[in-house]
Design a protein that fits this description.
205 residues, mainly alpha, Tetracycline Repressor, domain 2, Homeodomain-like_sf, 71% helix, 2 domains, Arc Repressor Mutant, subunit A, DNA-binding transcription factor activity
């Protein structure tokens, strides 16, 4: 169900933040509309007026979260140097998941649950994010910075999966690590693949 036009951006963000706090504790299925409304400081009727149902709200909030993530990742498309663009992609993802750690948990739990109530929605949203990652990875391939046997589509999905799982591991199991430490670990992995084609044309460090 699509959100109704009466919803404001401020209300959407308040509900998104509230839902994530609760979902991070108990999972999407275990949270009620009453609880989300109370956490967001809005009337229960506001949720139903704007979204029609709890399922409609969760669906819309998943889309909202992915839209926020996509905005962070698209900043990498503006970076001219292909190696720096890849690093900007990593930074954008880690910054987002540091701000919304429960969203990483929600994505992992719902994307890979079989079957999941919001699996269909998340599959489409996952494709949107991977498409952004693919554009940046394709630029590295175009300058000969990827080994020829590396498939851009597979590499892009793998990079997104890596960022998602690393962010979740960081927030849940290693919160004492700084973002810079986590970033450097991911960048080393990325460089290990994207800089191992010395014979490719136009290789950029």
């Amino acid at each position: 169900m699509k959100p109704r036009p009466g919803r404001t951006t401020a209300t959407k963000q308040k509900l998104f933040d509230a839902a994530l706090r609760l979902v991070g504790e108990r999972g999407a299925a275990g949270v009620t509309v009453d609880e989300i409304a109370a956490e967001a400081g809005v009337a229960k009727g506001t949720v139903y007026y704007n979204f029609g149902s709890k399922d409609g709200m969760v669906d819309a909030l998943l889309r909202h979260g992915v839209q926020l993530l996509a905005t962070r990742l698209r900043a990498a498309e503006e970076v001219e140097d292909t190696a720096a663009a890849l690093e900007a992609l990593v930074d954008g993802a880690l910054d987002f998941f540091a701000e919304y750690p429960a969203f990483a948990q929600l994505l992992v739990s719902e994307m890979w649950r079989t079957p999941g109530q919001w699996h269909g929605t998340l599959s489409l949203l996952r494709d949107d994010i991977v498409a952004i990652v693919k554009q940046v990875v394709q630029r590295r391939a175009d300058v000969g910075a990827l080994p020829p046997e590396v498939q851009v589509g597979t590499a892009s999905a793998a990079l997104f999966g890596t960022l998602l799982v690393v962010a979740l591991d960081w927030q849940v199991f290693q919160p004492q690590r700084s973002k810079q430490e986590v970033r450097e670990s991911v960048i080393l992995l990325v460089r290990g693949v994207s800089e191992r084609n010395p014979n490719g044309p136009g290789h950029q460090p």
